[in-house]
Q: What sequence folds into this?
């Protein structure tokens, strides 16, 4: 059988009748939007092309999109230009027929042409279209209203307008054509492909297991530590333009562990002589030791002249057994199969933009199956703007990611001194802020997990911040928690309010304004009235702080 290649050329013959070029301008709340890429429509009685001035001038940045409407076939063709040699195509043969409008008696004149009015409501938005039959052609600056006539204005909710500002007869006899050299995608796949081409995705982990096992091993790209509860990859980040937005996405499922566990995503700074990377390779006790007088030694938790602690990108908490324990049945409960976490990490961009850095993830657990995660970072371009935070300086981090390799829990707040870190600024720092993450732990009735405790922060001996971190919305996420224990009072364990975290949620940071800091030495102190130990049960606090500024 002869092989057939899917290739055809659809010529939308604008040369068979008088064709027009219509230029449209957008305005919001009575003001023309500046700057803007003007919408252009080329049309005759058979077909319409919707494009923009920058596309026609070959100045459009990828990705961009053009739309062809074949009025004879009642089909819409959309072509996305994703890159120099990447395109995507879709065809919709039902959208035009599904459009419905209320035809209204009002009339007005636009550019000298009498126009009629039509109205429709889409996704709670009221759209008013003004169209004319005077030119004997159809068209619109969007796919909406293509069958009404020539749409010269579309108004949305009475405050946003796309209006024709120029109509020109075309002298050219060359047909406008759409070349199809690839199989059209279904509409959903096309939109997904076009959407994802608008930003950069950096994959970090895919179905990565974080478990407790003597057999956990590293490979050429993923390093595993602390009996498999930590995974680290070296990632090369591109230069990220100022003003861009950067997001961290993580998806988690239980692979055997039924409990709510502390998770952390982090960057390992390598700017000083010693880093946590050394501790991962050589053992927690090779890290700088912090002591505050309570008799314990805490490894690698505060900055020194020779060491920087981790930069925590995200603090998250696993739910009780999502997916692995979905076989547990409760009436009227349909468990989710995975929990998604998403966080804006743009303020930390100076720590990784244009750099090759170690990015890691940790989930504390003692289960052979553990947890499964997938993770990526996405970079979304915005208008060029100065970086708000050129300085990203990690000061402390008590999250003991090496818990399963002997790193001490954050129990240091049982001493009145709490945590004290000294740091030196080489230059004055303007608009300084502390990015502060805090969660309390101690999972019994009197443990700090379930007892509100005030956090106090002092800078150079003066109090700059107080907060009692607490989450009261944990019951909202019950469907993430199939293995959560149910109690006689009608509550589940995952319902209970906690010290700034819930099973299945991200803990978001506090931003503490510190003003302008002079060059030289400074001291930061964190004080928390940590609860007393009861038998084998103890409380601990996971706090991390990063100094930001310019």
A:
């Amino acid at each position: 059988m002869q092989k057939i290649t899917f290739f055809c050329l659809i010529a939308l013959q604008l040369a068979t009748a008088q064709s027009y070029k219509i230029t449209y301008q957008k305005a919001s709340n009575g003001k023309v939007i500046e700057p803007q890429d003007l919408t252009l429509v080329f049309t005759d009685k058979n077909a319409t092309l919707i494009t923009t001035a920058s596309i026609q001038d070959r100045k459009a940045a990828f990705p961009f999109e053009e739309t062809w409407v074949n009025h004879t076939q009642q089909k819409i063709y959309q072509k996305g230009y994703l890159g120099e040699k990447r395109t995507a195509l879709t065809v919709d043969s039902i959208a035009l027929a599904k459009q419905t409008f209320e035809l209204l008696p009002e009339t007005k004149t636009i550019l000298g042409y009498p126009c009629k009015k039509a109205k429709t409501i889409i996704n709670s938005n009221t759209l008013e279209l003004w169209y004319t039959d005077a030119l004997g052609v159809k068209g619109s600056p969007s796919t909406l209203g293509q069958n009404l006539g020539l749409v010269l204005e579309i108004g949305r909710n009475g405050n946003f307008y796309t209006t024709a500002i120029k109509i020109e007869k075309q002298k050219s006899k060359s047909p406008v054509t759409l070349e199809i050299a690839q199989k059209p995608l279904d509409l959903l796949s096309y939109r997904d492909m076009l959407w994802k081409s608008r930003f950069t995705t950096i994959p970090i982990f895919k179905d990565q297991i974080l478990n407790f096992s003597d057999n956990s091993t590293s490979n050429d790209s993923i390093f595993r530590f602390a009996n498999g509860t930590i995974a680290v990859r070296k990632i090369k980040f591109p230069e990220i333009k100022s003003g861009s937005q950067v997001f961290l996405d993580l998806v988690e499922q239980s692979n055997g562990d039924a409990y709510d566990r502390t998770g952390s995503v982090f960057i390992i700074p390598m700017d000083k002589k010693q880093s946590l990377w050394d501790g991962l390779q050589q053992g927690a006790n090779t890290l700088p030791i912090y002591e505050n007088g309570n008799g314990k030694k805490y490894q690698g938790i505060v900055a020194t002249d020779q060491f920087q602690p981790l930069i925590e990108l995200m603090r998250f908490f696993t739910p009780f057994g999502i997916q692995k324990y979905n076989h547990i049945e409760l009436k009227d409960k349909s468990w989710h199969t995975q929990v998604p976490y998403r966080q804006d990490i743009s303020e930390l961009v100076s720590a990784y933009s244009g750099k090759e850095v170690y990015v890691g993830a940790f989930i504390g657990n003692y289960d052979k199956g553990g947890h499964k995660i997938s993770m990526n970072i996405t970079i979304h371009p915005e208008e060029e703007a100065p970086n708000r935070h050129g300085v990203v300086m990690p000061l402390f981090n008590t999250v003991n990611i090496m818990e399963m390799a002997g790193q001490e829990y954050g129990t240091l707040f049982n001493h009145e001194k709490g945590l004290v870190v000294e740091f030196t600024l080489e230059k004055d720092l303007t608009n300084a802020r502390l990015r502060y993450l805090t969660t309390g732990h101690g999972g019994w009735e009197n443990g700090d997990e379930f007892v509100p405790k005030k956090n106090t922060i002092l800078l150079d001996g003066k109090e700059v911040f107080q907060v009692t971190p607490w989450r009261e919305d944990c019951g909202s996420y019950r469907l993430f928690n199939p293995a959560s224990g149910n109690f006689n009072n009608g509550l589940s364990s995952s319902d209970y309010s906690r010290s700034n975290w819930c099973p299945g949620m991200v803990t978001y940071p506090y931003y503490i304004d510190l003003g302008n800091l002079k060059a030289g030495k400074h001291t930061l102190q964190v004080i928390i009235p940590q609860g007393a130990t009861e038998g084998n049960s103890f409380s601990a606090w996971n706090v991390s702080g990063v100094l930001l500024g310019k």
